[in-house]
Amino acid sequence: MAYDETTFRRPGESTGETDPAAYRRRVQLDDTGGNTLDQSLRVPVTSTAEEDGRDRLGVHLGWEVVLLVAAGVLGFLLWRESSAALQRPALDVLLVTGAAIGLITLGAGLSLRAGVPNLAIGPIVLAAEFQFAENGDKGILQALVPALIIAAAGGLIVAVLILVLHVPGWAATLAAAFGVITFDQLRVNAVVVQGDWEPTGRAFVLFGGFAVLAVLGAGLGAIGPVRRFFGRMRSSGDPAGRRGLAVVLPVVVALVGSSVFAAGAGVILAAQSTAPIRPGTGLEWTGVGLGLALLGGTSAYGRRGGIFGTLFAVIALTLFLDYQTRKDLQISIFAIAGAVFLAGLIATRIVESYGRLAGAVATQDWNAAPSGGLDPSWSPTMPETWNTPAQPGGTDRWDEGPWGTNR
């Protein structure tokens, strides 16, 4: 005897649909009645903000304490190796190097927060170095301003390409990186730096400017509406789906800003360098910038980031570079970039796992409110008085017959 036979069917129940899965599909897709049972069977629909939840800044602050301790340990090792390294004039060189690395990291972090990681920042750094090396004798403005304008124009072009075609940011910026590398490698021989501008005379101003930008930008990014607006390119649902006009401003600001920061860093590095600028790819600086941004707490998926992480990560790497130079360790910059990047990926997993509130998306499985068909006076709580049901008048039929107990 089947369950769906007439004997077991409620009066007035339809026999046209007996598949429970079909009923659930009908409830989820077609039914708009809104009763409690139907809503529990429907696929929950939540907003992007509810899916991502709020930032839990505690994990960022805890990670930043770890970075601060690491920077302190490296500073102690450098001081023990040479106490003069933390005194002027060596301190000025250290601060200028930190400012240049910090600008590269700011550009990388800005593009990551917007969901369009700029892989061209390293080649842009090298291109700006060549620009200053070849034109530094004309004055700092004539060498710096064209580099900034060309970098901003290139970032704008890449941003338009991403917005029109809606392609991943890493793919478009990688194509731009190949174009900039081609420009960098047009030089066959090393270029001697022209001009006499010394950034060490403004070391505290340069590093202080980077520190203020890093903390101020991170503080603005921690504000919920700003964070959500700036990270609208973060993938949700179909990654190929267009995000609308709301992503135009964040993408343009991120790519133009990151390119300008990279160009400024290249000019500072070239002005500080005592050796000729050699042709290359510049991708090592891309690895350093993105790796430090990730290590500082910026998520590789976009939007999420800390407050002081970028500053502490840049300080730690700057101290390590000076320490390994004084120790004559001769570690390749590519190896350093790879190690920093790997540590940054671990930091990203920590940030994404513990940086959001648990249960940001709550599914309503039970609604204690009465549905429209019940008495409005119904309450989900148990009544104070409970009457024991009366015992049935008859006896169990099992006690009768040839096997009954009354026999």
Secondary structure: helix percent: 55-70%
Number of strands: 0
Report low-confidence residues grouped into runs of 5 or more: 31-52, 358-369
Shape: globular
Q: Tally the helices: what do you get?
A: 14
Distance between the termini: 33 Å
Give helix and strand order, one letter per element, not per position: HHHHHHHHHHHHHH
Major β-sheet profile: none
Structural class: mainly alpha
Radius of gyration from the CA trace? 32 Å
**Beta-strand percent range:** under 5%
Overall mean pLDDT:
77
Question: How would you describe the overall organization of this protein?
Answer:
This protein has 407 residues and is an all-alpha fold. It is 57% helix and 0% strand. It is built from 14 helices and no strands. It has helices at residues 20-29, 36-41, 48-52, 57-81, 90-113, 121-135, 140-165, 169-184, 203-221, 224-230, 248-272, 283-295, 309-326, 333-354. The two termini are 33 Å apart.
Quick gist of this model?
By secondary structure, the protein is mostly helical. 57% of the residues lie in helices and 0% in strands.
